[in-house]
Design brief:
The chain has 813 residues and is mostly helical.
């Protein structure tokens, strides 16, 4: 009271009293002492700010302060600095608008502030990615950033230090130990250390681990006292510790010995299992090194993990189990093989399947897997995964043999087993090129998977079925399959995020073939926005392939090749037949660029020639070889080369038509036309061209023709003159660039753009996406697409970049 009165008197009147000289023999009367001062403050001609620091020392608010707050004159303001919430009527003051609060979140550095502090104040000269890593690690805690900065001085390996920077660093341990832990009562400190290893905290979980019954109260105290506790929900049921604080606590916890920490992990695992949280239960069992328990938990979680295609989670668990534990459990061995298949790690798959068969082949009690549906399914699933392994190795006969064995073993009511077996049989038939039975068998597999409740697998299998439809030339059916699955994925919401991004990538490829490049790009934007969780690992390469094809259509071959390089890096050998090798796609771009030496090196490196025996798995490669031979003939006019190309194409066409691969046949017919044209036989070239036009028109093929450039444009003009499919041919010629399809339009020849179309064109020249343009114009996305289509037609272009370039040439932008 003496200090408070003295400080106020000095600030208000300038006549302070030396508090050390003032002897207080009786308690001061609050009202008597402060009323006069408050009256003086009310008359003051200047603002007075009273600052009370380290207020966390006050366990109970003094009556003087309450009186002061209730009677503050307008010129007097109170500032309280405290590590914990002060024992004051804060809720009442908030409601009256009398309180301004700066809490932990407000005091954290933003990324920009962290950059300024580390590089300008501390003069460290860190790269942007290093600053971001430190800001994330410290969660913007200023003292943590300062401790890190002090530690980095005179260090040469800054990125290495940042990667290793945790609460175990001595500066952080010293600071938090002295400033935080040592100031806590024994029971609070023991609670902190005992719960340090929990990634998230709730009162029931903490009670199970610590044996205390006051965990809820303690968590509230920790939050009130700002002890590096972060609430994870609005109801204050779940919390976590600040990352660095948690590291310090864990380091302290380990001082008590690893046995105690393992015992705490086991208690946490038990609680998570009882509360039906299997992933957390497994994680803590593994941390406790209780591997038998962890293995049992993994097996029990397997159906849901597999149904939701949480492949990376499962493989991460299995790799943490000792081999001797996993190998005695046939269920784990089989799904270990499955996880390695889908991650592209094929070398160990067979050994895991052999482990499973050995464990099953012993006595009833020879293995450790518990009896249940997963164990009963193994006689079907083992040949299923052997079929997958054979397929990944290109062994079509072995794939068919194992898939049929699996289907024979599956019981009529075993929807999951029958779905998996039929699915691999369908893919084996696809790999052999027998598309009609492949589609029927695979469609049956999808039906069985749906009946088994495996929606994620149904969505993932849509891409396979759509790919088969495309090979058959049934592009409209492929689109219907994609649209139905996208509706299903939307209805399921976050329960089945997998494959949704892949579905958008698939639709993008269909849009691209119909020369709807803007729509194709929009689907890829949607796919990317959904993120990695919405894509299966074996399909992530497809996004880059689809974007590469768009860049190729837009006349950017180098960008297309870069995207294919990334697709090649992401490609996983495993479940799906490799019917369109990425290396062959790159060779096709080289051929279009005139880089025939690179394309020839690819063909020779693959051991490909026009005289090879044909198989469906090499069909895409051999069609690419035919393209190369035609290009080589155009380059040096060797009659032998073009004869090789035409002979190869004739054999390829016979094989494709015999197996109802109309999609493949369409491309082969187009190349036959170009081959005859290259020999100078235009009339002969129109025969396969006419057949291709008849088959392609109902399915809306555009880029199949437009991608062939000037030679195809010349053939189509000849076809137009002869009255062959006139409307379709005119549509195709409109998809070529001005130099190929028709002469560039002059401003006077061009059909005028409407005022609305000019507005859309200006927005197309920005970075806005289609949906963002729609929002800007207050119209639907379909309306934007209609305007865009009209703009493309009037400017005689087929892509957004080309429209912008042409508009600038014409002075429209």
């Amino acid at each position: 009271m003496t200090y408070l009165v003295t400080a106020l008197r000095g600030a208000v009147s300038g006549e302070g009293v030396d508090p050390l000289a003032t002897q207080v023999t009786e308690p001061l009367s609050v009202e008597a002492s402060l009323t006069a001062l408050l009256n003086e403050a009310a008359q003051a001609s200047h603002r007075v700010v009273l600052v009370l620091d380290d207020f966390q020392s006050m366990e109970v608010a003094p009556t003087a302060l309450t009186f002061l707050l209730d009677h503050l004159p307008s010129a007097l303001h109170m500032v309280i600095a405290s590590r914990s919430d002060p024992p004051l009527p804060l809720a009442r003051m908030r409601g009256r608008g009398e309180l301004t609060e700066l809490r932990g979140a407000d005091l954290r550095f933003t990324p920009e502030e962290a950059a300024a502090f580390l590089n300008q104040v501390m003069a460290l000269g860190l790269a942007a990615e290093d600053i971001a890593a430190l800001e994330t690690r410290t969660e913007g805690w200023i003292a943590g950033l300062q401790l890190a900065a002090l530690s980095m001085r005179d260090r040469s390996d800054i990125p290495g230090f940042i990667k290793a920077f945790t609460g175990s660093h001595r500066f952080v341990i010293d600071y938090l130990g002295e400033e935080v832990l040592q100031r806590q009562p024994d029971h609070v400190r023991d609670f902190l250390v005992s719960t340090a290893f929990l990634d998230r905290l709730s009162a029931p979980l903490c009670e199970a681990v610590t044996g205390r019954t006051d965990s809820s109260e303690l968590l509230e105290i920790l939050e009130r006292d700002n002890l590096f506790v972060v609430p994870l929900d609005d109801r204050r049921e779940w919390y976590r510790y600040h990352h660095l604080f948690a590291d310090v606590l864990r380091a302290r916890s380990l001082r008590d010995g690893p046995d105690r920490v393992r015992a705490l992990h086991r208690l946490a695992s038990d609680w998570y299992e009882r509360n039906d949280l299997p992933e957390d239960a497994v994680r803590h069992a593994l941390a406790a090194a209780d591997f038998e328990r962890a293995a049992g938990l993994v097996e029990r979680a397997m159906p849901e993990i597999r149904r939701r295609r949480q492949d990376a989670t499962l493989l991460g668990w299995l790799k943490l189990l000792p081999d001797e534990v996993a190998s005695r459990r046939p269920v784990l061995s089989v799904y270990y093989a499955w996880s390695m298949l889908i991650s592209g790690e094929l070398d160990e798959v067979e050994r895991r399947l052999d482990d499973a068969e050995r464990a099953l082949g012993g006595s009833a009690h020879a293995h450790a897997s518990a009896d249940g549906e997963e164990l009963r399914m193994l006689p079907v699933m083992i040949p299923v995964y052997r079929a997958s392994l054979a397929q990944a190795r290109g062994d079509v006969a072995g794939t068919l043999e194992h898939a049929r064995r699996a289907l024979d073993r599956a019981q009529p009511g075993d929807h999951l087993g029958r779905g998996a077996a039929a699915g691999f049989l369908g893919m084996a038939l696809w790999a052999s090129g027998d598309l009609e039975p492949a589609v029927r068998t695979f469609a049956d597999a999808r039906t069985s998977l749906g009946l088994a409740g495996n929606t994620a697998d149904v969505l993932g299998s849509t891409l396979v079925l759509a790919d088969m439809f495309v090979v058959q030339g049934r592009r409209r059916e492929a689109r219907r399959a994609y649209e139905h699955s996208l509706q299903l994925a939307t209805a399921q919401g976050e329960l089945v995020p997998q494959s949704t991004a892949d579905l958008h990538a698939g639709v993008s490829e269909l849009d691209r073939e119909q020369d709807e490049l803007e729509a194709a790009t929009e689907h890829l934007r949607a796919s990317k926005a959904l993120g990695g969780r919405a894509s299966l690992p074996e399909n992530r390469y497809r996004w880059f392939v689809a974007m590469s094809r768009i860049r190729e259509a837009e006349g950017e071959p180098d960008a297309a090749l870069d995207l294919l390089d990334e697709a090649e890096r992401l490609y996983l050998r495993g479940f799906l037949p490799e019917t369109r090798p990425i290396a062959a796609m790159k060779a096709r771009i080289w051929i279009a660029q005139g880089k025939l030496a690179e394309a020839r090196a690819w063909a020779d490196g693959q051991g490909l020639s026009a005289a090879d025996d044909l198989s469906y798995l090499r069909e895409f490669d051999h069609i690419t070889v035919a393209r190369l031979l035609i290009a080589e003939h155009r380059a040096d006019r060797q009659d032998g080369v073009i004869r090789e190309a035409l002979d190869l194409l004739e054999r390829l066409l016979g094989a494709a038509e015999a197996a109802s691969r109309t999609g493949s046949a369409n491309e082969i017919l187009v190349l036959q036309a170009l081959g005859h044209q290259a020999k100078g036989h235009t009339a002969l070239a129109l025969v396969p061209l006419n057949r291709a036009l008849v088959q392609c028109q109902p399915e809306g093929y555009i880029r199949l023709f437009a991608d062939e450039g000037t030679p195809m444009a010349a053939l189509l003009k000849e076809a137009e003159q002869q009255g062959i499919a006139p409307g379709y041919v005119r549509r195709l010629l409109g998809a070529f660039g001005p130099a190929e399809g028709k002469s560039p339009l002059t401003p006077t020849e061009m059909e005028a753009l409407s005022e609305r179309e000019v507005h859309v064109l200006k927005l197309l020249s920005t970075e806005l996406s289609g949906p963002e343009i729609a929002r800007e114009l207050f119209v639907s996305l379909n309306t934007v697409r209609t305007h865009t289509s009209h703009i493309f037609r009037k400017l005689a272009v087929n892509s957004r970049p080309a429209a912008v370039r042409r508009a600038r040439e014409l002075g429209l932008l």
